[in-house]
Amino acid sequence: MKASEASAPAKRGLCSSGHSMNWLIDSLAVWRISSLLVNEDGPWYVFKRLREATGFVYYGDGSILRQPDNSVLACVWCTSIWVALAIVFLPKWLRRALSLSAIAIGVEKYGNR
Prior knowledge:
Blueprint: H1 3-6, H2 8-12, H3 17-39, H4 46-53, E1 57-58, E2 64-66, H5 76-87, H6 92-111
Antiparallel strand pairs: 1-2
Helix pairs in contact: 3-4, 3-5, 3-6
């Protein structure tokens, strides 16, 4: 194999830092959207209302009393599969903003330890 053939994937961008950065941005954005849908109330309780519309019932303190069986919104792992399929349609600036939010949450959560 020639040296030029060995570097062909790098020339196509498969191993470039740009490709890795896009993958990281998209991964963080998927986590952020999934976490919003599963764990957070959101502005004007929009995410909590969405979960309630799908069958979630809450105690007065906000903890879950009952959740529907096989709900996509039951855990971040389940939700992230569907979010990952949809995220390719979001504009890059929005995916980047969501990933920055995910990083800020990580810094806040783990930076004060």
